[in-house]
Amino acid sequence: MKRSLMYTQLALVVLFILPGCMKLGPDYQKPGIGMQVPAGYQYAPTELTMPEPDDQWWLVFNDPELNQLVEEALKNNLDIKIATAAVLEVRAQLVSTRADRFPQVNVQAGAERQQRPKQTSVPGQAFSVDREITTYDLSLPASFEIDLWGRLARAEEAARANLLEAEENRRTVAQTVVAEAITLYLQMESFERAIEIAERLVESFRRSLNLVESRYKRGLTSVLDVRQARRVLAGAQATLPSLRQDLGTTQQALAVLLGRYPETRPPRLQPEDYYKRLDPVPPGLPSELLLRRPDIRAAEAQLVALNALVGVAKASRFPRIVLTGTYGYTSEDLDRLFKPENELWNIALGIAQPLFDAGKLQAGQRAAEARYQQGVVSYANTVTGKLASVPSTCSKQIVARASTNRSSPRLISCAQTNSVVPAAATRECTSIQSPATAGTKYSIS
User: Fold this and answer.
1) How far apart are CA 104 and CA 231, in angstroms?
2) What CATH number is associated with residue 123?
3) What is the Cα–Cα distance from 26 to 306, expressed in whole angstroms?
């Protein structure tokens, strides 16, 4: 008896250990993207320096109001709240999936009253008498699936990858919201500066018109000059409504992004040095930069989940081993329910193997493998797309800096001339940066 009990305990220990050692299905290996990744980006400087990762990159603007807007966007933006709730959902799904790898223990209690016939007899006669019986039960049924083929382990692996994907998607949404908020804020400042320039231009043209009219009254100029001065003034005045409308639209978009009621406000006065030249962004190695992108990490996490689901589909074609057992008490007398003579228990081991399903499980495995192949192509497409965006951004940065370097001497000259000839200086500065295009200067991609 003792030897039989020892063998039983040893068998249970082996059954609990084996599931951790065997997993059907392929282990994940990072796939290639079908192209040779260069050592450096095109249009990037020759000397490559690896920038230190910094989540609060907007601090380089050194603008307290901008920092406050970003904090408000991260706290109140509705898209970020949706992404955060999605993370909580997937995290709960992981707990639910992981729970299948542990024993399930329940408690059952019941009371039953029934009538049973009881056979009795007297000398020379036999008959039955109805008898009412009350039975009380209290038991702890338990079940445990022995994950011999790693089906439940692969399912947990897929759930963990889904959680990682949801977290990276949340980071992607947060970065997108921050970039959009900063873009709208800088565009708002640009429109405010453009309105200020347009108002100065209108005032300058109004003074010019007064001067031309005064000269016309003295017979020093023709009426054509007066009409031309009026047309120029009207054209400058016509730009103000559209600029104010663009400013209001930008302010409303920023308010919605921050979770506020969309409203507008009058333009603020911008200082002369409202735009500060920033240091160039140091480029790094493509592989290192790609590892930092949350959208790339999310795509790879999805691929890990698809790979694990292949193992789940394959293990489903093998036998399932379930260990069940019950321990409890049953008695016809509630006061004697927990007496040793009323104790009951049972333990059973069941094996279920699909014999015929018309190819359903095999088709499910093939479908899982096909979804994984789709994920590999999608991952490669995501990586190559992000690789292609970097040289394009570097090229735009080179063009923008070259344009800024060419315009800087003229802007400095305008500032020096402004105190001497205000009207001429205003027209010259406006020709460098027109109010209609001022809002496109600070877009962030």
Assistant:
1) 85
2) 2.20.200.10
3) 11
Do 276 and 134 share a structural domain? no
Read off the tokens for 445: 């991609």
Q: What is the mean pLDDT of the chain?
A: 80
Q: What's the rounded Cα separation, in Å, for the pair 306 and 303?
A: 5
H/E run at residue 358: none
Which among 340, 343, 331 is positioned nearest to 137, based on CA atoms?
A: 331
Query: Any idea what DSSP says for residue 339?
Result: S
Question: What's the half-sphere exposure (Cβ side, CA atoms, 13 Å) at 282?
Answer: 11
Q: Are residues 251 and 387 in the same domain?
A: yes
d(C-alpha 83, C-alpha 90), whole Å:
11
Q: How many distinct structural domains can be found in the chain?
A: 2
Per-residue confidence (pLDDT) for residue 77, from 0 to 100? 92
Return the sign of the alpha-carbon dihedral for residues 436, 276, 400, 68: negative
Residues 341 and 238 in one domain: no
Average pLDDT of 258-274? 82
Task: Tell me how crowded residue 257 is: count the other CB atoms within 10 A of its CB.
Answer: 23
On whether the CB atoms of residues 155 and 145 are closer than 8 A, the answer is: no
In a domain, 27, yes or no: yes
Q: State the residue range of the domain holding 43.
A: 21-101+148-318+356-403
